[in-house]
Amino acid sequence: MAPRVLISDKLSTTAVQIFKDRGVEVDYQPDLGKDKEKFLEIIGNYDGLAIRSASKVTEKVLAAAKNLKVIGRAGIGVDNVDVPAATARGIIVMNTPFGNSITTAEHAIAMMFALARDIPEANASTQAGKWEKNRFMGVELTSKTLGIIGCGNIGSIVADRAIGLKMRVIAYDPFLSAERAVEIGVEKVELDDVFRRSDFITLHVPLTEKTRNIIDMAAILKMKKGVRIINCARGGLIVEADLKQALDSGHVAGAALDVFEAEPATDNPLFGNPKVVCTPHLGASTTEAQENVALQVAEQMADYLTKGAVSNALNMPSITAEEAPRLMPFVKLAEQIGSFAGQLTDTGLKAVRIEYRGDVAAMNTRALTSAALTGVLQPQLQSVNMVSAPIMAKERGINVSEIRNDDAENYDSLIRLTLVTDKLERSIAGTVFADGHPRIVEIKGIKMDAEFASSMIYVTNEDKPGFIGRFAGLIGDAGLNIATFALGRKERGDDAICLVEVDGDVPASVLDAVTKLAGVRHAKALKF
Hints:
By secondary structure, the chain is of the alpha/beta class. It is 33% helix and 24% strand. The chain contains 17 helices and 22 strands. The protein has helices at 13-21, 36-42, 59-64, 83-88, 101-117, 119-127, 153-164, 178-184, 191-197, 217-220, 240-249, 287-307, 324-343, 365-377, 388-395, 467-477, 508-515, and strands at residues 4-7, 25-28, 48-51, 70-73, 92-94, 145-149, 168-172, 187-188, 200-203, 227-231, 252-257, 276-278, 349-358, 399-405, 413-421, 425-432, 438-443, 446-451, 455-462, 481-489, 495-503, 520-527. It has a 7-stranded parallel sheet, sandwiched between helices. It starts with a strand and ends with a strand.
């Protein structure tokens, strides 16, 4: 029986034909995403679901999707898909991460021009029969400094276009290497330098816990008076109330926004302000981009449903069906040790070195390296997946190397990951035991034995008597239950590490108290 795909949003007719040509039955109902009851009623009849942004694939929808195997999002954002719930049900979620990069970058440049020359206001005034030539005094872009926050795929295209406009371009991106910055012609700087030096600031980062509200009043007060801000990335990156206050005071000369904290944005405190240019999330809205992402998602889904091939999946690496049972535990290990190291790294990342020892060295290390890079990059780049991680690392000039060795030291298989930053090298090693569970066996050369857990506290400290008691007492007083406690040290009285699993999230106040304990050098809350 041929696989069946439901298209519940507007997609190119060429995409529909691709499904048919590959032997996949297609039910094209482009307005179904707006009819929640009918959507729930029929979703159980399909193997695949192709969507844009209108269809909301909630846990309730997924519960009704008894036969669903794959969801394809024509575009990069999957905010409208409950990815964890889909993963729990074994449903692959695919996107098309690079299909609309040029279009979004061009929109940011267009918004910058509109902002610099008051084009929307001047247009409205002129069409109203006024001739207010003296009212609309703009500024040139030539020789101005453009600050880019997030210099990945889209940000680097914006940089290229801005350099062509003879602008000075500076960029903040923790994953942008100095070498890559030179290659694309930008000056790599810290975030405060972007705020302090820029005439225009444009945002090109995903919305994560680290980037949410990245521009608030504290950030704005560091900026030049008369700065202009462009956001074609994600709503929630800017505190809209703070931006309004800064516009009203004149500290910010103007803002161009394609995205808003609440969308559809039918009411917003920034609407009606003559210093603000607004568009309704048009970043990917060109004929070319819409066609590209539609064709790409159709090809990916058809390949999976007819051949079992997986590409651009957010919740599954590119692995063949034959190798999956043996490889998957090591994929999980690679991603988790990558996440461990990535969560501890805040400075510029120059290189990632991954060493495979023993039996694992003969496996599909390409998938394992992709998994490790996903873990490393995910704390900063939430939308990264197994396929896009190597590309994103390359774009940022991060050198990635693999070492294979048949000798696994004391284990049948061992994966050791080392991150090289501007200031230090940090390594972590792990293995998979017979029970199939990944385990940490070494951190920074210190031997230990610990399982990964959803909430952990990592502490480096001096190996002196009394530390464990002080630490445990503080955690207990805070109402946190310690589930497991792993320790390791180099030598007596030397550096020591503890890795502690706790029940529940670690409040910032508790972590701050841990860092102030006598002998503690560093403490970090980790999530897996």
